[in-house]
Amino acid sequence: MDLELTPEQRAIQTLAREVAEAEIAPHAGAWDREHRFPDELYPKLAELGLLGVCVPEEYGGAGGDFLSYVLVLEELSRADAGVGVTVAVHTSAATLPILAFGTEEQRARFVPPLARGEQLGAFALTEPGSGSDAGSLRTSAARDGDGWVLNGAKQWITNGSRAGTFVLFARTDPTTAGARGISCFVLDAEHVRITREEEKLGLNSSTTSDLVLEGARVERDRLLHEEGRGFTVAMATLDGGRIGIAAQAVGIAQAAFDVASRYAREREQFGRRIGDFQAIQTKLANMAVEIDAARLLTYRAAWLKQEGRPHAVEGAKAKLFASEMARRQTAEAIQVLGGYGYTKEFPVERYYRDAKITEIYEGTSEIQRLVIARSILGRGLREDRVTAAPRSS
Ligand SMILES: Cc1cc2nc3c(=O)[nH]c(=O)nc-3n(C[C@H](O)[C@H](O)[C@H](O)COP(=O)(O)OP(=O)(O)OC[C@H]3O[C@@H](n4cnc5c(N)ncnc54)[C@H](O)[C@@H]3O)c2cc1C
After folding, report:
1. Is residue 1, in this structure, part of any structural domain at all?
2. What is the pTM of this model?
3. Is 114 in the pocket of ligand 1 (CB under 6 A)?
């Protein structure tokens, strides 16, 4: 067992940390307050190869491994979780499924513009009526000659209003309810119409859009993987994506710990630094242990994925623990700062708001527990359903 990062992993971690500290952290508070998507940032990240970290060089990426990508997400999220989710969805939810399930022609056509950061990617699964139960989605793709015509609505699509490429799921077999009639398509921005931008509790520097498909016609070359096998694409994508969300949660919690531990050294009450009080020491010690535990779970899941080994359960464990840890420990960071923690003078209230979403998207904590429980108790428990609710968005 080797817990050391390789020189390549260290180098990309350092690069991401430097760009996050120089280009992101100083502006994150303003982007949050102004609810502003920093369009100017992404060409800079693209130039450094950070929008295609784990994409092979032959497809325009930086050629790093999946753990390198996870390290980058952690560093970006430490500075701004909105930037973290933008890069996470772009990479693991939009670019990687095309690499994994695309034909050679599709990989060569769609991946390089994404990996080089010439355009952002989005992943469109959720609909107004289907979240955790993604297999019940209703967007339709009706046969039309050699292609399909898509109609329907998608909700809360990260990067929706900025993306050039959408990995989108629709029902190609209206006679089959549940997951089996779903197919996956690669669409362009012109195939969808953005109808609304969501206002959120946090992640205010990211975009979350509703969109509609109004008779969008696509040819056969837009079908990703086999017809009727789209749910497999969605679930495999989320198995990997969850590891990225775990890294995002670790980054947010680390940022909160950094502020809280610095504050504990400086703030004085009763004539002593508050860090001299055992109650505050206990909080900082618990934060340090839990962040470390979450990070190790996350790195293990990333390592399993890059080794091509099963990682669905390990990814679910990492996401579950890291996200709940981030919510708990960002709240503790506010407590260490007292009243100042509750104000906008310090960033910990932003970390607290940003941390909450990691318990919800790419599968809620309840769904992660179902995935883990099923690995313990077996599938038989849920044979009454084909919609595979326990493995959904
Ligand atoms: C900021 C943001 C960004 C997002 N980005 C994207 C994106 O890019 N692409 C995309 O497709 N989607 C995206 N989503 C959607 C997200 O993945 C869903 O919100 C999530 O999967 C949960 O679905 P839901 O909100 O419909 O909740 P529901 O499924 O309605 O769940 C409500 C509650 O019921 C619980 N529940 C549901 N089913 C079960 C069950 N079987 N057992 C126990 N408890 C259960 C849930 O855990 C939750 O507590 C985003 C959402 C947000 C808020």
Report:
1. no
2. 0.96
3. no
